[in-house]
Write a structure and sequence with these properties.
395 residues; globular; alpha+beta
Length: 395
């Protein structure tokens, strides 16, 4: 296995790349059963027996790893305590540590570095885990990620942006700095001495969720657009909203980064009804979702930046490194003082079974990481008739 880390390169040196999912089951399982299921799920997903290598050239790759460091433990800590503890424990991606599992008073909790995959990837890992826990066998699942070569031809950048990237890359060559794992350790330790995150979880039961879906349908908008409008109506200023978008056009269920994203900017109009505002938010979302130039713009743009310049942007954000070039680029791309107001990942209805033998998944909570380019990070997932919305912020 040797896969270049290209469109997801910014994940290596970001100091907060931990995706979290919490499950509640209808029945308890013994610790050894849980560990066996965890180890089995890790074994079938190719990315979880790889590691990250940063070469002297500055390029980075996933490569085969015979000694993965993924782990499953029992703890008395609850979800928020575990997030606090594990944000301060860097994932040793250079040794093959991508995922940690816990049996806790809050249920089963899985924490994964974003280089292990996107939110869907963690759901598919959980599906493998639950199948093995219930006595099934799982087939091997190959690694999949998105590279520049995978992106649709129509998503190519306009010439102006290609020229801009070439200018930035050329300027960066004059002051170029390559970073390694030691730099990441130093930046990580310094950052987490000064920072802490908090998580708020809003649970929507069946009746409340159905009512919201009716209201959204009546307004002619998606549930996501309806929720965004609710969140921004009292902002008083234009809000910059980022939305993660799945990129699994073939419907594969592999672990790996296969997501892209769009952004919309909107100021709630107080002279319009809530429904009119929601329709405008929805219209702006659809405009970008239906155009491959918008849909894959971030991956195309970031993929063509010099890999070490992308590293430097994260190091700028964490306060570890600065230069005139990387500081300017970081500011322009949202890695500086002005970051995205709201970043949303809506996994919608979890597309994994909820019943596995005697085990039923009764509840799922999804907490995305507070990435360098965002400040209000929102994760949404629906399991059965319950939707959980988690808001993750620095406190």
């Amino acid at each position: 296995m040797r896969h270049i880390i290209e469109t997801e390169r910014v994940d290596i040196f970001d100091v907060n790349m931990m995706i979290v999912m919490q499950l509640r089951l209808n029945a308890e399982a013994g610790l050894e059963e849980l560990r066996k299921a965890f180890d089995g799920a890790c074994a079938v997903h190719e990315v979880l027996h790889s590691k990250v290598v940063i070469e002297a050239s500055g390029d980075a790759y996933y490569v085969d790893n015979d000694e993965p460091q993924n782990s499953f433990t029992q703890t008395e800590s609850d979800l928020r305590e575990l997030i606090y503890q594990n944000e301060r424990r860097r994932f040793r991606i250079e040794k093959g540590e991508f995922i940690r599992g816990f049996s806790s008073p809050d249920g089963l909790i899985f924490m994964m570095h974003h280089l292990g995959g996107d939110g869907k990837s963690l759901l598919y890992f959980i599906e493998s885990f639950m199948r093995i826990l219930s006595g099934e066998e799982c087939e091997a699942v190959p690694f999949r990620n998105l590279t520049l070569a995978d992106l649709p031809p129509k998503s190519r950048l306009p010439v102006l942006y290609d020229v801009l990237i070439k200018i930035w890359n050329r300027k960066w060559q004059r002051v170029k700095r390559s970073f390694d794992i030691h730099d990441l350790d130093e930046a990580f330790s310094a950052f987490w001495k000064e920072h802490k995150t908090g998580v708020e979880i809003k649970r929507y039961e069946k009746n409340e969720l159905e009512d919201m879906l009716r209201q959204a349908k009546k307004a002619g908008v998606s549930l996501t657009a309806y929720l965004i409008t609710e969140w921004i109506k009292d902002a008083g200023t234009e809000t910059d909203i980022g939305l993660a978008v799945g990129g699994r056009e073939d419907g594969n269920r592999s672990m790996g980064n296969q997501a892209t994203g769009i952004s919309v900017q909107y100021r709630y109009r107080t002279n319009r009804s809530f429904e009119e505002n929601a329709r405008e938010v929805h219209r702006r979302m659809l405009k970008k979702l239906s155009d491959e130039r918008y849909l894959y713009f971030v991956l195309q743009f970031m993929g063509k930046l010099d890999p070490t310049l992308k590293d430097a942007m994260n190091m700028e954000r964490s306060g570890y490194f600065t230069s005139a070039v990387s500081s300017k680029v970081a500011g322009l791309l949202g890695y500086g003082d002005k970051v995205r107001d709201i970043s949303i990942t809506n996994l919608t209805k979890a597309d994994i079974p909820l019943k596995y033998g005697r085990y039923n998944i009764e509840d799922i909570v999804f907490v995305p990481p507070v990435v360098s380019y965002g400040k209000n990070i929102i994760g949404i997932v629906t399991a059965g008739d319950v939707m959980n919305v988690a808001r993750h912020v620095y406190t």
